[in-house]
Amino acid sequence: MTASSHTGMLQCAKSSINHRSRYILLQFSVQFHQIRGKSGRPPFKNRYDDDDDNVDGHVRRRMENQEDRLQLYKSWGQHLLTNSKVLDSIVSKSGVGPSDTVLEIGPGTGNLTVRLLEVANKVVAVEVDSRMVESLHTRVSGRGFDEKLTIICQDALKADFQDFDLVVANIPYGISSPLVAKLVFGGYRFRSATLLLQKEFATRLLANPGDSDYNRLAVNVKLVAEVEHVMNVSKKDFVPIPKVDSSVVKIRLKPKIPDVNLTEWWAFTKTCFGKKNKTLGATFRQKKKVAELLNLSKVTGYNEDVVQLKSCDESGDEEDESDIFETDVKLFKEKLVGILVTAGLEDKRPSKLSNEELMNLLSLFNKAGIWFHDQEKPRDINASFAGL
Hints:
Keywords: Methyltransferase, RNA-binding, rRNA processing, S-adenosyl-L-methionine, Transferase. The chain has 15 helices and 9 strands. It is α/β, with parallel strands linked by helices.
C-alpha cells in the first residue's frame, strides 16, 4: 500500500467518524428539546432578549439592533442597554406609576421605552438621531403604544421639556454634565430622575466632603438636589460594549433651596475648586485672582479701600499708576485673607468643606463688597456649572 493510499483511508475513516458524531448529537438535541417541551419549561432565552419569549421576536429584535442594520455611533454615546433584568430593575427603581408622564432622553431603539410604556400613562422620548426615531416608531407601533408615546426629534440640551413627573433615561455619556444641570437648575419640577450614567461620573456626583472624588460637580448639584446610588451596571450589558462600566443614580430636587445667586455661586465654587486640594488661603493670595476680584469690586463701587485710594489719586498724588495698582492689590489681598481668618477657613481645603461652610464664606465676602463672576463667559448655563 502506498503512502498516499494509506492517507486516503485515514481521511475516509475520520470523515465517517465525524458524520456519525454529528448524527448522534443531532438526535440528542431533538430528544432534549422534546423532553423540555413536555416539561412545560420555557425555551432558552438569549442574553440580548429584552421583552419577547418567542424565537421570532428574538430574530426581529436582532434585525433592529444589529450594527449592520443600524450603525451605532460611539461618538454620540449610542450604547444600547440590552440586559432585560437591568432594564426591568431600572423601571422598578424609578417608581413609575400608571398616572405618570415620563421623560426619557436618548431612547435609542426603545429597549427601555417599551417597558416604560407598559406601566406609565405617557412617555415623552427625546432623540436627536432620526434613524433611531424611525426605528422606535416602528417598534412601538407593533405593540399598540402609539397614543402613549410622544417622540421629540431634537437635541436634548436645546429642547424645551414640557411638564413631566419623572425622568428615566440611559444618558449619552457626552452630555451627562450639562443635561444634569439642565434638569436640576432648569426650573423643572419633577419627583425624581433615575439616570444611567458613566460610573466615574456617577461616583463624582455622589461624592461627599472629604472623599477623594469630591468636586465642584457634587457641590453644585447638592445645593439643590439629593443624589442616591441605585446600582452598578456592567459594560457587557451594552451593545456596542463601551470602555467603562455604568451606574444608576436617582436625583430628587430639594423642596427648599438656599437663597443664593446661582450665577455667582458657580463662579465662587469655580474659584475655590480650581485647585480643590490647595488651601483657601493659598488660592486667595494668588495675584491674578486678587486682581480679578479687585477689578470686579471696582465695578460694584462698594469696596471702601478702592474708594479711599481713588481719593488719594485725585488729590494730586503723582505716584505711577502701576504702583497704585500694586498697592490696591496688596490691600485687597489682606482684606480677602482677613475674611478667611474670620471664617476660620484660611488653612482649609475646599475638598473638605460642606455646602453650608462654603455658603457662609460667600456671604462674608458679599458683605465686604466682594463679588464673583465667571470671566470666561460660558457657552450656556447648563454647560458652565459643573466645571469639568
